[in-house]
Amino acid sequence: MKKKGFILLLVMILSISALAACGSDSAGGKKEDKTLIVATDNSFVPFEYSDKDSGEMKGFDIDLMKAIAKEAGLKIKFKPMKFDGIVPGLKSKRWDMGIAGMSITDERKKSIDFSDPYYESGLIIGVQADNTDIKGSEDLAGKKVSTKTGTTSQDYLKNKIPEAKSVAFPEINQAYQELSAGRVDATLYDMPNLAYYIKTKAKGKIKMVGKKMTAESYGIGFPKGSDLVGKVNKALKTIRDNGTYDKIYKKWFGEKPE
Ligand code: GLN
Q1: Which residues form the Ionotropic glutamate receptor C-terminal domain (predicted)?
Q2: Domains in the chain, ordered, with CATH?
């Protein structure tokens, strides 16, 4: 009897310590072991989108972030969401990082930190292919222009072309649909996304006009003061130097950056 009682006690002690070990593992344990939440846009081709078959997030940003994480020894998990939820969630430290073709702006820098720039972008106007009266931003006065909520395009329309009637949608596809259906005259958005959209879905239906309107650089976002900024910048530099960045760039955009 005594022996049985002892064994029972031993088993209990062992299982409690095993549980405790599990607990400290999943509840953070050492900081480097923590799985970091990387917020991303649920649809911004070809930077991030959910793959139709697997449901997995794919794209340039996704590959880049995975390469950075591998280089820096960080465990990450993507959390796709509407674009306008990313900056507020970084500000309140709900996400550890955010990658979403997010332009580095002075306004955003007031509430979050950014990595070094990783992609040069800019805004461009899209119109129906047979449109002949809109050739640039100077022709947008009085016109209906669609774009996406919470983006630099929405700000641009508000601040630089207030004479245009801007309509913003949470998903850019809605903005493009409005353009295809002729319910708006133009769409203003990031050039690489519009170019990709035309190439894959709207050849001969939508065209780009005018020049790229602003130079914008994409950066990875962090809560203010995050110690991940330095680690990510270091890893970004390494993968730029060792050819990994170029490989990823080529996969999604065809040609190497100059
Ligand atoms: N580059 C734009 C911005 O930062 C749009 C990004 C996006 O829609 N994912 O506002």
Answers
A1: 35-255
A2: 32-118+219-253 (3.40.190.10), 121-216 (3.40.190.10)
